[in-house]
Amino acid sequence: MIVRTLIAAGAVLALAGPALAQNAPAKAAPAATDGMTLQQFQARNGDKLFARLDTNKDGKISPDEFAAYRKQNAEVDAKASGKAGKRGQKLFQRFDTDKDGMLSRTEADALLAWRFKRMDTNNDGVLTLEELQAKPGKAKVGV
Prior knowledge:
It contains 7 helices and 2 strands; from the N terminus they run H-E-H-H-H-H-H-E-H. The protein has about 140 residues and is mostly helical. It is globular, with a radius of gyration of 16 Å.
């Protein structure tokens, strides 16, 4: 689902690039037609992702909410390694930096930054449409 959203966002960027480039400052990050920077990625996906995960709308993501979101990935993990849900639990613990058992918006943004880095296969700091559309196994994507 996230990949489809990112593909759609990339397509919108590609179409809106010339209009966005006219309003960009002279020393701006790469033009929108070149791809999406981390800041653009977080701005476009942060609110949507947080709203999707925070199902009870308490402003934090619980381990149960995170597990529900990752259910499909957990099923794939279970088939591959026999460790159902362990990968998701470890991921949650990794990003719960204050160790309060919940993910705040700041911690969720760190998760998005990690995801961005994994998707940016050429490590240039910009997600291209090609990187957004990478087939499973081609990009370093996971969440």
